[in-house]
Every structure is written in C-alpha cells, then in structure tokens.
C-alpha cells in the first residue's frame, strides 16, 4: 500500500470518527496529503466539536504524513468552496474526494417530521453535491480526479425506519452515475460504496420487532464484529492510478467480502399490438411480470448469509 497515493491530495468528509477516520488514516499511510473534514456533530447532527478533525490530522502527521483539517459543514456552500481552496493553498491541490459525511434521524415514515427528513437529505445528498460540484472545478482544470460517494444498502435495498436516509443514499447513486457520465470528458471518475461496519451510525438502526427483541441479539453481535477498517482498502484503491478506468460503479464491503452491486436495468417486458387498457394490464401485463417483483425486503433480508 505504501506509495499507492503518493503525490495525491485526498479530501475525506466526516473523517473525525469511525469509518471516515479510518479512510483518512489509510490515505495518509498510502502517501497522500489528506484534508480531514468534520464538523464534529452528534449522530443526529447536533452540537459541534471542531477539534475532532484536527485530532485525526495530527495522527496522520505523527505517523510521518502530511494533513490539514477543516471543520466546515458540507451543507454550507460558501464554506465548502473555502475548504476546496484550503486544499489548494495548504496541500497543493485535490485529486481524490471521499464523500463520507452523514447524520441519521431514524423514525418510522408515518412519524417522521419535516425537519427530520430535511436534515438528513441536506447533509447526505445536498452535502455530496456541494463538495462534488466544488471539486469538479479543480478536476476539470487538471483534466482528472476521482470521487467515492458513500451510499448504503438502506438505499439500494431498503431498511426499517430510514426513509429519509434511504432516499438520500439512493439519490447519491444517481448523482454519482450522472457525474461519471458528465465528467468523463475531463477524465473524472465517480463511484459509490455501500459500507457494512459497526459504528455510531449503525448502532441507531431500529431492530426488527423493536430494540429489545431477543431474536435480534445474535445478528447485532455479528454486526458489532464488522470492523470499520475493512472499508478503506477499496476506497484507497479506487483513488489510485491503477483504478483510472473504473467509474460509474456501485460497490459494497462487508467484512472480507467485496460486492459489485447491480444497477437498474429492464428485467422483463410485455407487448400488445393493440395497446393496453387498465383491464389488460391487470389480466396480462402484471401477471406476466409478477414472478420478477421484489418484495418489501430490508438490507438484512437481501444479505441473508453470515459474513463471519
């Protein structure tokens, strides 16, 4: 791994704790100059601790690397532009962006408030767009760059009590895909990663049957063994020159497993030369397609085998 990102500048948002911290530390170990961004809020986006980002930057420097820190909010477009300028001024540019910042406001959909919806969409989806937009200005000028955006199987598959988070994370997939198409002429690549790891984020996810359901305990114990340090290797690899041809993809990491996730494509079609009526749709089209329908599954239902 040593030298894999030598000469590159990597910006990691939400890097003060958990998975983001591990990503930033490994980028430094791989030779990158690292901009560590974290506002230092609670898991719900409240409170501020501007020291968190600097603590991680200090760890990178203590290990012989080069790093700066920034406590800007990804939802503040002016602050985001300033952060990108800081990358240029203090670290000499920007080559690889990791959109990792996020919060949770878990609630069953019928009880979710407008504020809980807006806060999660703003940090995850709008935040990813804000950083990506600012980074693209540099990437276009230098004719190259890489982005990895954190999605989630909550968005790809669905999850209990996370409609706001799921919507934002699936939106990020569409954002990444569009960036990969729009920016291809500037040699900018954009990929998504859905991480499985126990963190303060996953610790809040509602359990099936309620948090005290004893049937959930074995599963939750396995989740706790999914270490966050399993996530960075793929992100480091995607930021390297060896992955310069990889863009527009969705990956997932669960323990020692790496998945390439499918993307929406036609499954089945039906045709009637005379066209359709509501009655023929019910009698013909829907029955013909029904065997390929997806049920109301959660991420856990889809990834239903033991990773450990």
Automatic annotation (TrEMBL):
Pfam families in UniProt: adh_short
Gene3D superfamilies reported in the protein's UniProt record: NAD(P)-binding Rossmann-like Domain
Family annotation (InterPro entries): KR_dom (IPR057326), NAD(P)-bd_dom_sf (IPR036291), Peroxisomal_Beta-Oxidation (IPR051687), Sc_DH/Rdtase_CS (IPR020904), SDR_fam (IPR002347)
Residue ranges occupied by any Ketoreductase domain in the UniProt entry: 8-209
Family the UniProt entry places it in: Belongs to the short-chain dehydrogenases/reductases (SDR) family.
Name of the protein this chain belongs to: SDR family NAD(P)-dependent oxidoreductase
Organism annotation: Candidatus Marimicrobium litorale
């Amino acid at each position: 791994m040593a030298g894999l990102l030598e000469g590159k500048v990597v910006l990691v948002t939400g890097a003060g704790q958990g998975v983001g911290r591990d990503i930033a530390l490994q980028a430094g170990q791989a030779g990158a100059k690292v901009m560590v961004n974290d506002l230092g809020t609670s898991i719900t986006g409240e409170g501020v601790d501007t020291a968190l980002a600097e603590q991680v930057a200090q760890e990178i420097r203590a290990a012989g690397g080069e790093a700066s820190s920034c406590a800007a909010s990804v939802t503040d477009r002016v602050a985001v532009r300033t952060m990108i300028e800081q990358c240029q001024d203090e670290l000499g540019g920007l080559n690889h962006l990791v959109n990792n910042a996020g919060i949770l406001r878990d609630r069953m959909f019928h009880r979710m408030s407008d504020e809980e919806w807006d806060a999660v969409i703003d940090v995850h989806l709008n935040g990813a767009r804000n950083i990506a937009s600012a980074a693209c200005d540099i990437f276009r000028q230098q004719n190259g760059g890489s982005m990895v955006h954190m999605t989630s199987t909550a968005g790809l598959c669905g999850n209990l009590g996370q409609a706001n988070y799921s919507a934002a994370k699936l939106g990020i997939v569409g954002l990444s895909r569009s960036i990969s198409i729009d920016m291809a002429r500037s040699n900018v690549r954009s990929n998504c990663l859905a991480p499985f790891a126990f963190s303060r984020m996953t610790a809040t996810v509602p359990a099936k049957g309620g948090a005290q359901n004893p049937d959930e305990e074995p599963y939750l114990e396995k989740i706790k063994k999914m270490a966050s340090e399993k996530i960075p290797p793929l992100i480091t690899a995607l930021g390297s020159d060896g992955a310069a041809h990889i863009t527009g993809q969705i990956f997932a990491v669960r323990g020692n497993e790496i998945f390439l996730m499918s993307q929406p494509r036609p499954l089945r079609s039906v045709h009637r030369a005379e066209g359709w009526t509501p009655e023929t749709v019910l009698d013909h089209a829907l029955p013909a397609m029904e065997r390929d329908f997806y049920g109301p599954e959660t991420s856990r239902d889809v990834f239903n085998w033991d990773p450990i």
